[in-house]
Amino acid sequence: MPQNRVLSGIQPTGEPHLGNLLGAVRWWVADQREGDCFYCVVDLHGLTVAGDPDQRRAASMTMATLLLAAGLDPDSCTLFLQSHVPEHTQLAWLLECTASFGELRRMTQFKDKSAKEGEEAARVGLFTYPCLMAADILLYDADRVPVGDDQRQHLELTRNLAQRFNARYGSDVFVVPEAQIPPPGRGARIMNLQEPERKMSKSAGSPQGVIGLMEDPRDIERKVRRAVTDADDGPDAVRYDTAAKPGVSSLLELLATLEGTRPEEVAARYSRYGPLKADLAAAVVAAVEPIQARYRELDKDPGYVASVLASGAQRAGHVAAATLERAYDAVGLLRSGP
Ligand code: AQP
């Protein structure tokens, strides 16, 4: 059985933001020398919503380049595009035949995302994509899956599908993975700066509340300065109280996450919003500037990024093919050959 195998993915559905970095990508970077890590730009998931083909191509390259710029090292981890490894969609079908309609119906991301256009118009892929996500994970015998808190339900589904499949077909075809979610208040769920009750997202919520990783530092400062706090601006205005003061609490969480401390400790250092916001803006800029500089370098050499993705797909395909073969055999699909 593999040791300490890690799998995680990110959709190339827009500019990645601070939530993606703090909830997932920085853990990927920290982990890459600890485990046998597979990181994937999940471009097929991006088809669940509308998009232009040229923009899609560009977005996949941008995302791969950004992940390298954020610190992924192809000598220490396997970085690849999901669509380069056809076993993902092949295993997804087996898992669609393992999941029930009712359990997919309960996925909150489907409810949220389909609410935009209405269920009638929502793509079937939006409904079934948790099975594709489960395939992404199970193909690599992942023990751990570093994700933000918004993916908790999908991880639970993945575990259920793996256990059901193993029980149904009487063997240990799949490793049952564990979700690795940052502690609450320390990157698990970074909130939109304008709508502190909703998570920062590439595709939803006020764009003024989303900090993109490629954003100009002056825009970052402006967005942090304008972040929603609360009307009360008295001497104890800066308190960590997520129920009564969601705006300022999410700023405290953000600064604590960036500093590696706790929100309560950060709150103790401030009495006014202004200085807190100034320090937070400086900390965000300090976190993204090196990524932006490295991105500009890598962007000059798309051939290098393409070669990283090609060798990543080769390595990933090797592991994925072996797992798919086990799963096909377990369900009773006749294998070709002598
Ligand atoms: N706000 C967030 N706080 C912490 N973690 C987050 N993640 C996303 N938003 C936050 C984590 O980032 C990883 C990659 O996510 P994704 O891009 O594949 O999809 P998503 O979770 O649906 O994120 P978005 O930004 O809301 O994307 P769109 O708008 O395209 O659907 C995941 O580990 C996720 O948990």
Outline the secondary-structure elements.
Blueprint: E1 5-10, H1 18-31, E2 36-41, H2 53-69, E3 77-81, H3 87-96, H4 101-105, H5 108-117, H6 124-138, E4 144-146, H7 152-168, E5 178-180, H8 217-225, H9 246-259, H10 263-267, H11 273-299, H12 302-331
Parallel strand pairs: 1-2, 2-3, 4-5
Helix pairs in contact: 2-11, 2-12, 3-6, 3-12, 6-7, 8-11, 9-11
Bound molecules: adenosine-5'-tetraphosphate (AQP).
Kindly summarize this structure in a few lines.
The protein is mainly alpha-helical and 338 residues long. The protein folds into two domains: 5-182 and 301-331, HUPs (Rossmann fold); 207-296, Tyrosyl-Transfer RNA Synthetase. It has helices at 18-31, 53-69, 87-96, 101-105, 108-117, 124-138, 152-168, 217-225, 246-259, 263-267, 273-299, 302-331; strands at 5-10, 36-41, 77-81, 144-146, 178-180.
Question: Your description of this structure?
Answer:
With 338 residues, the protein is mainly alpha-helical. The protein has 2 domains: 5-182 and 301-331, HUPs (Rossmann fold, 3-Layer(aba) Sandwich); 207-296, Tyrosyl-Transfer RNA Synthetase (Orthogonal Bundle). Helices cover 51% and strands 7% of the residues. The chain contains 12 helices and 5 strands. The chain has helices spanning 18-31, 53-69, 87-96, 101-105, 108-117, 124-138, 152-168, 217-225, 246-259, 263-267, 273-299, 302-331; strands spanning 5-10, 36-41, 77-81, 144-146, 178-180. Strands 1-2-3 form a 3-stranded parallel β-sheet. Strands 4-5 form a two-stranded parallel ribbon. Strand 2 (36-41), helix 2 (53-69) and strand 3 form a beta-alpha-beta unit. Helix 2 (53-69) packs across helix 12 (302-331), helix 3 (87-96) packs parallel to helix 12 and helix 6 crosses helix 7. The longest helix has 30 residues, at 302-331. The two termini are 28 Å apart. The model has no long low-confidence stretch (mean pLDDT 93). The structure holds adenosine-5'-tetraphosphate. The site of adenosine-5'-tetraphosphate has 20 residues, from helix 1.
